[in-house]
């Protein structure tokens, strides 16, 4: 039986197949580009969230380490930074202020290697004891144990400068009247003066290989460890530390 010779494919058919393949390739390429474009923000967002979590955990550990050993039921909530920053390498938290309170709403700085510092806010709460007045204490009274009582409560809700240990108040002098039941605070107390204004005091100076002593006039009251100004002559005024009754030390 004679075979029918194969007819060559028409040019239009070949062009149609080529067009379809090109169209499929273009669609695939567009799909890949769309996936990459839509995934990029999500990836960046996840990276930012991970970075925020690193900072939050570092600050949380820092605040827990700073909490007094006698505090109980400590709870720390750290608020992530509101702005986006570059990655923080080796975060090292710190308190921005030397005498900053460690309870309630606090601010914590984070030092980052090779980039600017961050500052985060946190809420710290815990249960512990603090000092209150067992009776009305008049201005100018030297406090003794019988005037104080201890209470227990949420340390995060106490005012700044609250005195937490009785020995920090015993022997101190009240600057103002303290009502019965009120919380004792640092600004209400001062050291019993060992040096008084206009008193002639002994000024002891020491340095490498020498020690001298001379008299001067105290220009203000001061208790143990307080810094006071001393007039040595009409033109010479120095600052020294109270080290005893009528004694002030100056280091060179």
From TrEMBL:
<dbReference type="Pfam" id="PF13144">
    <property type="entry name" value="ChapFlgA"/>
</dbReference>
<keyword id="KW-0282">Flagellum</keyword>
<dbReference type="InterPro" id="IPR013974">
    <property type="entry name" value="SAF"/>
</dbReference>
<keyword id="KW-0574">Periplasm</keyword>
<keyword id="KW-0969">Cilium</keyword>
<dbReference type="GO" id="GO:0044780">
    <property type="term" value="P:bacterial-type flagellum assembly"/>
</dbReference>
<feature type="domain" description="SAF">
    <location>
        <begin position="128"/>
        <end position="190"/>
    </location>
</feature>
<dbReference type="GO" id="GO:0042597">
    <property type="term" value="C:periplasmic space"/>
</dbReference>
<comment type="similarity">
    <text>Belongs to the FlgA family.</text>
</comment>
<dbReference type="InterPro" id="IPR017585">
    <property type="entry name" value="SAF_FlgA"/>
</dbReference>
<keyword id="KW-0732">Signal</keyword>
<dbReference type="Pfam" id="PF17656">
    <property type="entry name" value="ChapFlgA_N"/>
</dbReference>
<comment type="function">
    <text>Involved in the assembly process of the P-ring formation. It may associate with FlgF on the rod constituting a structure essential for the P-ring assembly or may act as a modulator protein for the P-ring assembly.</text>
</comment>
<dbReference type="InterPro" id="IPR039246">
    <property type="entry name" value="Flagellar_FlgA"/>
</dbReference>
<keyword id="KW-0966">Cell projection</keyword>
<dbReference type="InterPro" id="IPR041231">
    <property type="entry name" value="FlgA_N"/>
</dbReference>
<protein>
    <recommendedName>
        <fullName>Flagella basal body P-ring formation protein FlgA</fullName>
    </recommendedName>
</protein>
């Amino acid at each position: 039986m004679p075979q029918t010779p194969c007819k060559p494919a028409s040019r239009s058919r070949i062009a149609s197949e080529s067009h379809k393949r090109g169209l499929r390739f273009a669609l695939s390429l567009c799909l890949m580009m769309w996936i990459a474009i839509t995934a990029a923000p999500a990836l960046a967002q996840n990276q930012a969230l991970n970075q925020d979590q690193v900072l939050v955990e570092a600050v949380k550990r820092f605040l827990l380490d700073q909490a007094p050993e006698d505090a109980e039921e400590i709870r720390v909530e750290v608020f992530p930074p509101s702005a986006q920053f570059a990655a923080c390498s080796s975060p090292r938290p710190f308190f921005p202020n030397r005498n900053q309170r460690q309870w309630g709403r606090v601010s914590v700085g984070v030092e980052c290697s090779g980039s600017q510092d961050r500052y985060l806010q946190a809420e710290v709460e815990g249960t512990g004891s603090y000092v209150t007045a067992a009776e009305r204490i008049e201005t100018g009274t030297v406090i003794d144990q019988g005037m104080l009582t201890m209470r227990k409560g949420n340390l995060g809700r106490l005012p700044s400068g609250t005195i937490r240990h009785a020995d920090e108040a015993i022997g101190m002098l009240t600057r103002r009247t303290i009502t019965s039941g009120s919380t004792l605070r640092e600004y209400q107390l001062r050291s019993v003066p060992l040096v008084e204004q206009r008193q002639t005091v002994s000024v002891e100076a020491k340095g490498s290989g020498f020690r001298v002593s001379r008299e001067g006039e105290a220009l203000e009251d001061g208790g143990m460890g307080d810094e006071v100004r001393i007039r040595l002559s009409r033109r010479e005024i120095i600052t020294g530390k109270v080290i005893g009754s009528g004694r002030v030390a100056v280091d060179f």
